[in-house]
Amino acid sequence: MTATGPVANSGLDSRRPSAVQEIAAALAGSQASRDCTVAHRTRRVVLASLGVLQEQKASTRRSRTMALAAVLLVLVIVAPPVCWIANVLIEEERVTSLVGQLSLWGFFVVTALLGSALLAGWLRRRS
After folding, report:
1. Is residue 21 part of a domain?
2. What contacts 124, CB < 8 A, 6 or more positions away?
3. pTM for this model (two decimals)
4. Does 2 map to a domain?
5. Tally of structural domains, the chain
6. Which of 28, 63, 66, 93 stands 20 to 30 A from 5 (CA)?
7. What CA–CA distance (Å, rounded) separates 13 from 30?
C-alpha cells in the first residue's frame, strides 16, 4: 500500500503532499501550541469586548445619575421660591412690596439661567 492510496480513497486532498503530514501531526498532538495560541487570542478578543460593554453600561449609568441630579437640583432651587411667591399671591392677590417684586424677578432670572444651562449641556452632549 502506498501513501497516496488511502489518501485518495478517503477523499482527502491528494494534490498537497503535506496533507498526510498535517493529519498525522494533528493526531499526534504536535499542533497543540497553535491551538493554544488560537485559544489565547480568542480569550483576549472576548475580554476586550466585555470591557467595551462594561464601559458602555457605566457610561449609561453615569449619564442617568447626572440627569437625576440635575432634576433634583432644579427642584431644590426652584421649589421654595415658587411656594413663597404662590403664598404671597394667594394672600395679597398681587405683589406690592419691593422685596416681593425683586424676588419674583429673581425667580424668573434663576429659572431662565437654569433652563439655559440644562439646554446647553444637552446640546453639547448631543453633538
Report:
1. no
2. none
3. 0.41
4. no
5. 1
6. 28
7. 21
